[in-house]
Design goal:
Shape: rod-shaped
Distance between the termini: 57 Å
Largest sheet: 6 strands, mixed
Order of helices and strands: EHHHEEEEEHEEHHEHEHEHEEH
Number of strands: 13
Strand order of the largest sheet: 8-7-4-9-10-11
Number of helices: 10
């Protein structure tokens, strides 16, 4: 389908007709009087005439000029070829993952099916790699927190880069303690800069909050006001005491305020089960974007006009040359 981007340019079509209503342009020139004019006329074999001489176009030239004007006006309308609709699907959800990198994550209390034990962070990385593979439609981000919260990966569709940066995290790189509330606060800031309406934060921690600027419950209230759902996964031993003890009451309250859920993962199987539950509650979300490709065709009428002029002048040159040969032969 062809569409004119500037159809109002067609109003220029009658302009040449309007120009004919204007008076003709006349130009006077100085002349030189010579005493030997008669001899000059005789030598040149020309017949003297009085007044101006106006060159007249033949019918083909008139048609060619009108056709050229039509082509130029059509080019000015900027014709475009509109292709068939193309529909694309893009990420419909922003999913931020916040990982606790405090020293207690070094505890080797996660066992694989073959009996091999892993520390808590290694187990988290394995399960998060699976999560990234399964959430192909989501834009993923990564926050790491310990004594402070840091952005490791902004929201991205490139899950390979996200997994690579997750793999580079190490225990203690964010400090030894756990600022649970500050991690939520950083996630809120990042979500505010996002354009997605579906916002999910998954937090993995094995300890209680130890000195956040904003208490976790207060941060959760702000998150709820920004339409952010928080799912917390407690991966520590609930029997621990001291700074590494799990504050299950706070963790559950944070999820409750944001319409999320809290889980407890004492082994890798429970952690996978927690992610499966989150996946069922937050199914993959797609946003469809439809557009029609456009290709500008304004060059086509210009090219046609140029080709018509070239063909006309080549024909006239060939005809003049042939007439000259016939006169010489006669």
């Amino acid at each position: 389908m062809i569409e004119l981007a500037l159809p109002w340019a067609l109003l220029l079509l009658p302009l040449p007709v309007l120009m004919r209503l204007l008076p003709a342009y006349k130009e006077s020139r100085d002349s030189v009087k010579v005493p030997f004019f008669d001899q000059l006329v005789a030598v040149s074999e020309q017949r003297p005439e009085e007044g101006a001489r106006i060159l007249r176009r033949d019918r083909v030239q008139k048609i060619l000029v009108a056709f050229t004007w039509l082509c130029l006006v059509l080019a000015a309308t900027k014709p475009q070829w509109i292709g068939a609709p193309i529909e694309q699907q893009k990420s419909g959800r922003d999913l931020m993952v916040a990982v606790d990198l405090s020293g207690s994550m070094e505890a080797r209390d996660f066992a694989l099916p073959d009996g091999t034990t892993l520390n808590r962070l290694e187990a988290v990385k394995i399960v998060l790699d699976e999560l990234a593979s399964q959430r192909s439609s989501d834009r993923l981000g990564l926050i790491v927190f310990g004594a402070a919260a840091y952005l490791q990966t902004p929201f991205t569709d490139d899950h390979e880069v996200w997994q690579q940066l997750l793999g580079e995290t190490e225990i203690g790189m964010a400090g030894p303690s756990t600022v649970f509330g500050d991690a939520i606060g950083l996630a809120i800031k990042l979500f505010r800069e996002s354009t997605s309406d579906s916002r999910v934060l998954i937090m993995l921690t094995d300890g209680n909050d130890t000195g956040s600027t904003v208490p976790p419950v207060d941060a959760a209230k702000v998150a709820a006001a920004n339409n952010i759902r928080i799912y917390t996964i407690a991966i520590g031993d609930p029997t621990t005491v001291g700074e590494d003890a799990l504050d299950t009451q706070t963790i559950e309250r944070v999820s409750e305020l944001t319409r999320g859920r809290s889980f407890q993962a004492l082994d890798q199987a429970q952690m996978r089960e927690a992610y499966a539950t989150i996946a069922s509650m937050e199914p993959e979300l797609y946003e469809s974007v439809s557009f029609r490709p456009r290709q500008n065709l304004h060059w086509v009428p210009v090219a046609v006009a140029v080709i018509a002029f070239i063909c006309y002048h080549l024909f006239m040159a060939a005809w003049t040359w042939r007439q000259g040969r016939l006169r010489r032969a006669a």
